[in-house]
Every structure is written in structure tokens, then in C-alpha cells.
## 1
Amino acid sequence: MSADSRRLDRERQTVAAMIRLYCNHQHGRSRQLCVECAALWDYVQLRLERCVFQKNKPTCAKCPVHCYQPARRTQIQAVMRYAGPRMLWRHPVLAIRHVLDETKKAKRKT
Ligand code: SF4
Ligand SMILES: [Zn+2]
């Protein structure tokens, strides 16, 4: 796996885990995401695919571009606010890696 795909794959795993946790606790879904969260997850995947930074991607929360539509941004912020502090207990490795990714500086793909 290339550095490009590893970085994005990690981000996908982290956001997917956060949305699952949020949907499970807030919407009572355990096996499948609710319609609203499934649509958010589809949207996140599309943004990651088209991210201008690729392997040099900062976390979306620290991004200078913020490519999300305002409504989606509000939605993902609610997920992050809820799931962020709970991730350390549920997914410690992903949580720690996410914190490390937060120290990265954004650099556009060349
Ligand atoms: S918000 Fe920034 S880092 Fe996140 S996908 Fe969009 S451009 Fe990339
Ligand atoms: Zn949900």
C-alpha cells in the first residue's frame, strides 16, 4: 500500500468508526448506519477521494480549505464532538494516530 493510500485509509477507518459510534449511541443503530449517517459517510468518502492534499492531508478539522458543504460540516462536527472523546476507549490506536495526524501541516498534492 502506498503512503497516499495508507494515510487516506487511516482517515477512512477513523471517520467510519466515529460515525458508527455516534449512530449507535445517538440513533440506536448497531449493525447498519441510519439513512442520515449513511448519507454522511458517503459524502465523507467522496470528499476524501477528492481531497486536494491526499497523502499530506491534515485532519479535516484543521484543514485550511474546508471543502465540506456547510450542512455537512455541521453534521460531521456533531459526530466529532460526540465521538472524539469516546474514541480513546473504543479505538485507542485510531485515536492516537488521529491525534498525530492533527500535527501535520497541509500541503497540496503535487
Ligand atoms: S476538508 Fe480539507 S482535508 Fe478534509 S477532505 Fe476537504 S480538502 Fe481534504
Ligand atoms: Zn445515525
## 2
Amino acid sequence: MPNQLRNLIIVFAIFVGLFLTARHFLVPKTFGDLGHYRADALQYNIDHEKKFVDTTLCSNCHTDISNSKYVGAHKLINCQTCHGAGNKHIENPTINKMEKSSEREFCAKCHAKNLARSSTVIKQVDITKHNIDSKCVNCHNPHSPEIKMAQVASNQNKKDEPAICIMCHDKIDKIKTKGMHKSVPCQSCHGEGLNHIKSPSKSNMFKPSKREFCGKCHGIGIAPKSKGIKQIDLKEHNIENKCIDCHIGHNPLEFK
Ligand code: HEC
Ligand code: HEC
Ligand code: HEC
Ligand code: HEC
Ligand code: HEC
Ligand code: HEC
Ligand code: HEC
Ligand code: HEC
């Protein structure tokens, strides 16, 4: 046999050897079992048990959310696109939780600036610049993301009514309505804030912390007695601490 031919056969044999070794390690064990070009997804931790269900089932139990979603900019997005497959959840909602993320990165999956995508189809924001100090869901309700800001804008003249604050701070209002301060408007403690309403991150509200502040309504000899608000003596009642070291401002008979 000529030398050239022998070398050629050796090189060829090495290639075949390398190919077979690589194939052995790279191709999944279940290759072929499930049809052409498919491997068993379980090997990659994909949960076969998860299945998408008819979305009208979600509306049966989550009527309010479903109703608010169908009038908003997210109306075309399926609940399960954001919350994951729901087959287990509908069987037992308290044990089988849905996925739920309020992180900025989650919204960025669809809205982050990306020149390769059309911004007329999905509006884009630069998430390194757009209101960076806060979670998206503090300002945008995920189920009707544009309505809140539009409502806030059209209600600016009602800046002295708690309703305008509740548009963005509904979670705080839920805490407040459970407690003794339910009748005290947000503005009585935080002041009015037209700039804050227009651009929350750029203009912060006043946050009361001094004893004298609470004393304006509760201090014996300071607050007018006629209002029937419970009074304490500022010079006696737990003088070592600030009021809010113990009382939670939004629900004052709950303690820290
Ligand atoms: C665009 C993504 C998106 C879509 C579509 C969506 N959700 Fe949500 N959902 C969220 C996010 C984000 C939260 C978490 C909000 C938070 O933490 O403040 C949430 C929270 C919830 C909650 C918890 C309660 C609450 O109000 O925080 C329920 C229940 C819920 N969604 C049900 C649904 C149902 C039912 C649908 C379909 C009608 C749906 N969601 C569609 C993103 C979405
Ligand atoms: C049989 C009624 C029922 C159906 C159907 C149902 N849910 Fe729920 N869902 C609930 C209840 C009850 C809770 C509150 C569970 C808790 O807090 O323990 C809940 C909670 C949630 C939450 C908050 C996160 C969590 O898991 O606690 C999300 C998100 C959610 N559901 C989305 C959906 C979606 C999407 C669908 C449709 C695929 C759906 N739900 C169908 C009853 C239901
Ligand atoms: C699965 C993709 C997807 C996800 C995830 C998603 N969105 Fe959207 N969003 C859309 C689409 C599609 C529209 C409608 C087209 C448009 O107006 O950009 C929309 C519209 C909006 C609008 C209205 C823009 C306007 O002025 O018309 C806002 C605001 C918004 N989304 C915020 C959010 C926030 C906040 C989150 C996270 C809780 C989120 N989106 C998650 C796809 C998504
Ligand atoms: C502090 C409040 C605030 C936060 C936090 C916030 N936004 Fe906004 N967003 C606004 C306001 C106000 C507008 C409308 C005016 C504007 O364009 O700036 C808006 C507009 C948008 C729009 C429409 C842009 C357009 O071209 O019309 C999208 C999409 C959006 N936001 C997505 C997001 C996402 C995603 C996040 C989180 C990464 C987020 N927003 C966080 C207040 C907020
Ligand atoms: C458009 C949505 C929006 C409206 C309307 C709004 N806020 Fe805010 N507010 C926010 C966001 C977002 C933050 C968090 C700001 C940040 O950290 O960037 C915030 C923060 C605050 C803080 C904390 C400031 C701090 O220093 O920690 C107070 C207090 C507050 N808001 C009170 C109010 C009151 C009172 C009203 C009504 C007069 C109101 N807000 C209306 C979105 C809003
Ligand atoms: C009785 C006075 C009082 C009223 C009424 C009140 N707050 Fe507050 N709020 C406080 C105090 C005090 C703090 C600071 C709490 C702390 O630092 O521990 C605070 C803190 C906050 C914060 C900062 C985040 C936090 O939870 O600490 C926000 C946002 C806020 N309030 C919004 C509101 C809104 C919206 C309303 C109306 C629904 C409201 N507040 C009504 C006293 C009040
Ligand atoms: C604008 C006036 C106002 C301010 C400011 C105010 N409160 Fe109140 N507070 C009220 C009213 C009204 C009630 C409900 C009537 C009542 O029960 O005294 C109340 C109730 C309470 C109660 C429950 C009293 C009871 O046993 O019935 C406590 C505790 C309290 N406030 C603590 C505080 C603290 C701490 C602060 C400061 C962070 C504060 N308040 C600021 C008006 C105010
Ligand atoms: C060291 C914790 C602590 C501090 C600080 C504190 N409190 Fe209290 N406060 C309590 C406790 C506990 C109660 C309920 C038991 C009681 O009646 O003494 C209470 C009760 C009250 C009541 C209801 C009184 C009644 O007659 O039912 C008011 C009003 C009140 N506090 C306001 C304030 C104000 C305003 C401040 C700040 C100037 C303040 N507290 C500081 C712990 C505290």
C-alpha cells in the first residue's frame, strides 16, 4: 500500500473515531425514542405535567382582574403568558401557586429597548432610564398598564383627594382601611404633591416622623378636644421614642 493512501486511511479513521466519541457524549440517551430530532424533555427539567388550559377558566375565579384586563393595553396577552401554565393551579389554587413576578426584568422581556423589534407593535422603554428607582408595577397595573397613568393625568385637579394617591398606592390604602386612620386622608399626613403625581421618582412626598407631627391631632393641650380624637400627653406617653417606632402610621393600633 502506498504511504499516501495509508496516511489518508489513518486520518479518516481518526475522524470517524472523534465523530463517534463526540456523538456518544452530545446526543441525548433518549434520541429517537420520541420521533425524529426529539429528546426526552425531562432530562432538561422541563415539566411535562404543565399544560396550558382554556383561559376562560381563569376568568371564572378572577373576574375582577379579567374584566380590568380586557379594557387595557394587555388585553391581547393571555394570562398564562405571564403566569405560566395553569392546569395544576385550577385543580387546587391554594396549594399550586402560579408564577408571579413583579420585578422590572419581567416586564423588560417584552418592553426593553431593542432595535431589532418594531416599537410600533410593542412600545419600548429604556429600562436603564425609565423611572429606575421603582418597580414597574408601582406605577403600571400589570393587568391594565396604561389606564392608571391616563387616569392620574386626567385627575390632577383632584390632587387633594386620596383617590388620586390610591391609583398608584392601592396596597397602602388596603392596610389603612383596616385601621383607625381609615378616615384620615393621605394628604393630611403627606401633603399635596402635584409634582409627585406627575413624576413620582423625581419628586418625593413628605414622610412624617416627629412626635410633634402626630401630636397635632393627638396631643393633649395641642389638638382641639372637640374632634373626639383619642388624646395622649406628649410629655408622658412613651417619651423615649418616636411615635412610629411603635405605631404603624397607616394602621396605628398595629405595632412594630
Ligand atoms: C402582562 C403580564 C400579565 C398578564 C397578561 C396577566 N397578569 Fe396577573 N399579574 C402580573 C403581575 C406582574 C402580577 C404581580 C403584581 C404585583 O406584584 O403587584 C400579577 C398578579 C396577579 C394576581 C395576584 C393578585 C394581584 O392583583 O396582585 C392574580 C390573581 C393574577 N395576576 C391573575 C391574572 C389573570 C386571571 C390574568 C388573565 C385575565 C392575568 N393575571 C394576566 C402580570 C400579568
Ligand atoms: C377554581 C378557582 C380558580 C381558578 C379556575 C383560577 N384561579 Fe388563580 N387563584 C385562585 C385562588 C383562590 C387564589 C389565591 C390562592 C392563595 O392565595 O392561596 C389564586 C391565586 C392566583 C394568583 C396569585 C399567585 C398565587 O398563585 O397565589 C395568580 C397569578 C393566579 N391565581 C392566576 C390564575 C390564572 C392565570 C388562572 C387560569 C389559568 C387561574 N388563576 C385560575 C383561584 C382560581
Ligand atoms: C408578553 C409580552 C408582554 C409582557 C411580559 C408585558 N407587556 Fe406590556 N404590552 C405588551 C403589548 C403587546 C402591549 C400592547 C401594545 C403596546 O401598546 O405597546 C403592551 C402595552 C403596555 C403598556 C401601554 C403602552 C401604551 O402607552 O400604549 C404599558 C405601560 C405596558 N405594556 C407595561 C407593562 C408592564 C409594567 C409589564 C410588566 C408587569 C408589561 N407591560 C409586561 C406586551 C407585554
Ligand atoms: C414612577 C412611575 C413609573 C415606573 C416605575 C415605570 N413607569 Fe412606565 N411610564 C410611566 C409614565 C408616567 C409613562 C407615560 C409618560 C412617559 O412616556 O414617560 C410611562 C410610559 C410607559 C410606556 C409607554 C411608552 C410609550 O412609548 O408610550 C411603557 C411601555 C412603560 N411605561 C413600561 C414600563 C416598564 C416596563 C417599567 C419597568 C421597567 C415602567 N414602565 C416603570 C411611569 C412609570
Ligand atoms: C403615578 C403614580 C403615583 C401617584 C399618583 C402617587 N404616587 Fe406616591 N409614589 C409613587 C412611586 C412609584 C413611589 C416610589 C418612588 C421611588 O422610590 O422612586 C412613590 C413614593 C411615595 C412616598 C414615599 C416617599 C419616600 O421618600 O419614601 C410617599 C409618602 C408617597 N408616594 C405618597 C403619595 C401621596 C400622598 C400621593 C397622593 C397625593 C401619591 N403618593 C401619589 C407613585 C405615585
Ligand atoms: C396618619 C398619618 C398618615 C396617613 C393618613 C397616611 N400616611 Fe403614609 N406614612 C405615614 C408615616 C408616618 C409614614 C412613614 C412610616 C415609617 O417611616 O415607618 C408613611 C409612609 C408612607 C409611604 C412610604 C412607604 C412606606 O410604607 O413606608 C407611602 C408610599 C405612603 N405613606 C403613602 C400613603 C398613602 C397613599 C396614604 C393614603 C392612602 C397615606 N400614606 C396615608 C403616615 C400616614
Ligand atoms: C390629621 C389628624 C391625625 C394625624 C396627623 C394623626 N392621627 Fe392618629 N388618628 C386620627 C383620627 C381621626 C383617628 C380615629 C379617631 C380615634 O380613634 O382617635 C386616629 C386614631 C389613632 C389611634 C387609635 C386611637 C384609638 O385607640 O382609638 C392611634 C394609636 C393613632 N391615631 C396614632 C397616631 C400616630 C402615631 C400618628 C403619627 C404618625 C397619628 N396618629 C397622626 C387623626 C390623626
Ligand atoms: C414605646 C412604644 C410607643 C410609642 C413611642 C408611642 N406609643 Fe402610643 N401607644 C403605645 C401602646 C402600646 C398603646 C396602647 C396601650 C395604651 O393604651 O397605652 C398606645 C396608645 C396610643 C393611643 C391611644 C390612647 C387611648 O387612649 O386609647 C394614641 C392616640 C397614641 N398611642 C398615640 C401616640 C403618639 C401620638 C405617639 C408619639 C407622640 C405615641 N403614641 C408613641 C405605644 C407607643
